[in-house]
Design brief:
It is built from 14 helices and 7 strands. The chain has 376 residues and is of the alpha/beta class. A hairpin with an 8-residue loop joins strand 6 (177-180) and strand 7 (189-194). It is globular, with a radius of gyration of 22 Å.
Length: 376
């Protein structure tokens, strides 16, 4: 166990952890412990949640740290917020586990400047696809308790995205704070786990009682979540190897791709200023198509779809955190997030690397070890 790790509790009033966590962040703003909070807030049409940067405590009324949807991976937002310079304000940022792991990767890739950011990771029972969630809300379904029902039952949230069902990280890594619900009676309290010097310094200003040990049952409960999801992951890997792996399987799976590049746009790890697949290199002359037709007799349009996906896999498999934003953004319902997860898992295993596991691990291919240069 990390010697820095300490524990505290946020008391819950009226059996409502959501409003109690909001009150906690309000107090951080009111006491000037932080200058701003970035947290999911219900949209005006009440059919989704979007991250919002807040300085006025009153604006936290409709916030939900444990939002049931993830419209954008917040690492993308932090990239936009800090890439050209750290903000002068001290910002508390609320992130789901995959968002935190993507943030770690982008910090290492010099795309996020973490200065003045305080990371609050939340336990996650999975999220619902945006279109599914909107349909549920418009159909009159009350989803307000679904996140907490999931934690109570130890199961994924209802209508969970498939990628979430196989996520091995229900508890976030590398955050300054963890807002924990797994294994707790969260009608009474929410766990506040601290793991960094920055977090400990901030905790000292909160006037909260600090404990040395985790709540009884917490660690076992987290392990049970991980084991259950790992089993689902391995079952999918078996299915992938049987029906999708290989050029023929992948070609069939990507057959309905319309080459919209939504997956690239939604991916937090894709950050090239100029993408090869959106450059003049793929703006072919008419005679190129004539040549292809002469050689093949027929070809599917638009071209380069399979090349695009293979190129993207090769480009960012080492840093993929399997957040599934690509799959959520796909208009053709291609299981691209699960495919990338499978590829990323295998690639990262080769390098003994896990994306987002540690700030101290260099990204593969960005460095080398001496023994790698020895003649075979």
């Amino acid at each position: 166990m990390n010697k820095l790790t300490k524990y505290a509790k946020i008391p819950v009033t009226d059996s409502n952890p959501r409003t109690s966590v909001n009150a906690f962040f309000k107090s951080l703003l009111e006491k000037k412990i932080v200058d701003a909070v970035m947290i999911p807030v219900e949209t005006l049409d009440k059919t989704s949640y979007m991250q919002r940067l807040i300085t006025n405590p009153k604006e936290l009324e409709n916030a939900n740290a444990f939002s049931p949807v993830m419209a954008v991976n917040s690492a993308t937002l932090l990239k936009n917020l800090t890439r050209n310079g750290a903000p002068s304000k001290k910002i508390a940022v609320v992130l789901k586990p995959c968002e935190m792991r993507a943030t770690i990767e982008l910090i290492k890739l010099k795309q996020i400047n973490p200065e003045n950011l305080i990371f609050f990771g939340v336990d996650c029972p999975g999220t619902i696809n945006i279109s599914t969630y909107k349909a549920l809300i418009k159909g009159g379904t009350d989803t307000s308790s679904w996140v907490f029902d999931a934690f109570s039952s130890g199961q994924n949230i209802q209508n969970s995205r498939e990628i979430c069902k196989m996520c091995e990280y229900p508890e976030p890594l590398n955050t300054d704070f963890v807002l924990g619900l797994i294994g707790l009676d969260f009608n009474k309290e929410v766990l506040l786990k601290v793991t960094t010097e920055k977090g400990l310094s901030l905790l000292g200003a909160m006037e909260i009682q600090i404990e040395e040990k985790p709540p009884v049952g917490r660690e076992d409960a987290v392990t049970e979540w991980i084991d259950r999801r790992t089993k689902v992951r391995d079952e999918y890997f078996d299915e992938f190897n049987k029906s999708i792996a290989g050029v023929e399987g992948l070609s069939k799976t990507f057959a309905s791709c319309i080459n919209c590049h939504n997956c690239k746009t939604a991916c937090p790890i894709c950050f090239c200023k100029e993408c090869f697949f959106e450059s003049s290199a793929v703006e072919y002359e008419g005679r190129t198509f004539d040549m292809w037709l002469d050689a093949r007799d027929a070809m599917t349009m638009p071209t380069d779809r399979f090349l695009f996906h293979i190129g993207r896999m090769a480009h960012m498999a080492t840093s993929c955190v399997s957040c599934g934003m690509c799959e959520q953004a796909c208009p053709s319902d291609i299981p691209i997030g699960r495919i990338f997860k499978t590829v990323a898992f295998n690639v990262q295993n080769v390098f003994d690397y896990v994306a987002g596991r540690s700030l101290d691990e260099p990204v593969p291919l960005s460095t080398f070890k001496e023994h790698e240069l020895e003649p075979l």
